Amino acid sequence: MARILFVTSKSLGGSGKYISTLASALRERGHHCELVYFPLGVAQDAEIEAAFAAVHHFECRPGFSPLAVARNIKKVHRILKINCFDWVHTHTSLGGLFGRLGSIGAGPVKVGHTIHAYGADEFTPVPQKWIYWAIERFLDELTDAYVSPSKYMVDFGAKTKVINPAKATVIYNSLPLKAVACNVGELRNKKRIELGFGHEDNVLLFCGRIEKQKGLDVLVAALGKLNDDFRVRLIVCGVGDDEEKIRAKSKDYGVEKYITWAGWQSDLGDFYAAADVYVMPSRWESFGLVFLEAMNYSLPILSTRTQAIPEVVLDGVSGLLCENENSDELASNIIKLIKDDNFSKSLGVAGNKRLIEFFRFEKFVDEHVRWYES
């Protein structure tokens, strides 16, 4: 069985979920998994650490201080030298930097990297973009193999010449999702009453970090274009640096009374049960794990035609997609689902079937095991 050192810079977000669920499944199959990262003092730290046989902490907070970078690279190198791992599997841009440079001279260890995002993408301003490109291009020389959560990420990497696409294997993301409770209707009614929603209200759900990437500001702008007669309510589950700014925007648009700010939630099941539609108009996504959670509850999805999202959410089949940052088109799509309940439910049913066919967790784990063995 393989001995694998996971290296990342954080426990937050989709990459944290990916790492913790994959490591837990690998350990159940007899593989030895350890982690090195920097704890942020948040609830997700305990969740990610529970998945590993041993956990090592970076001594310096991730950042671009040359001294901190050097110390973190040295930390990885020392762990690899002492423990004789078969693989170092890196995640996030900083984790990829520390792990891949730390592998130099550390013995016969294979180096793999999961492409959660590129530092040098179309949203990165110049000159940082070219600096990140040069770093990632150099790190490609140290990388034996890549896992990509989507075909888009491989194609983008090949187009920009930041990776060698021959090294990349596409493994669609997944989660060990719980079966939806048979009393989901009862849970739905209970949660809606708790939140103060009426039977006729059309409930939208957003789950994610409240920052530019996830497009909550675009969703709030779209709500401002809807007539009060549509009885739309929005639940926001998440926290982030942009929350205060977007709350202020919701007041400017006159929609603050229709938004429930639920904060960070460790268990989202009741919120998915209470919702009619899942909405996340992301500006960029390498995959989008929350879409799978929405599919698990047979919710239709509203999002954007950007990056890898059309690979996960089929436009007109399991959801409706709009152009990036187009609040008018997003508002129109919200109205389409409100006006045609049968169509809305058919999208949710199709999404659930797609989840079972393409994004099963067992398939996700099997393909990673084959990747390590190859």
Give the arrangement of secondary structure elements.
Elements: E1 3-7, H1 13-28, E2 32-37, H2 43-49, E3 54-57, H3 66-83, E4 87-90, H4 93-102, E5 110-114, H5 128-140, E6 145-148, H6 151-159, E7 168-170, H7 184-195, E8 202-207, H8 216-223, E9 232-237, H9 243-252, E10 259-263, H10 269-274, E11 277-279, H11 289-296, E12 301-304, H12 309-312, E13 319-322, H13 327-339, H14 341-358, H15 361-373
Parallel strand pairs: 1-2, 1-4, 2-3, 4-5, 5-6, 6-7, 8-9, 8-11, 9-10, 11-12, 12-13
Helix pairs in contact: 1-2, 3-4, 8-13, 11-14
Your description of this structure?
With 374 residues, the protein is α/β, with parallel strands linked by helices. The chain has two domains: 3-174 and 360-373, Rossmann fold (3-Layer(aba) Sandwich); 184-358, Glycogen Phosphorylase B (Rossmann fold). It is built from 15 helices and 13 strands. The strands form two sheets. It has a seven-stranded parallel β-sheet, with helices on both faces. Strands 10-9-8-11-12-13 form a six-stranded parallel β-sheet, with helices on both faces. Helix 8 (216-223) crosses helix 13. The model has no long low-confidence stretch (mean pLDDT 95).
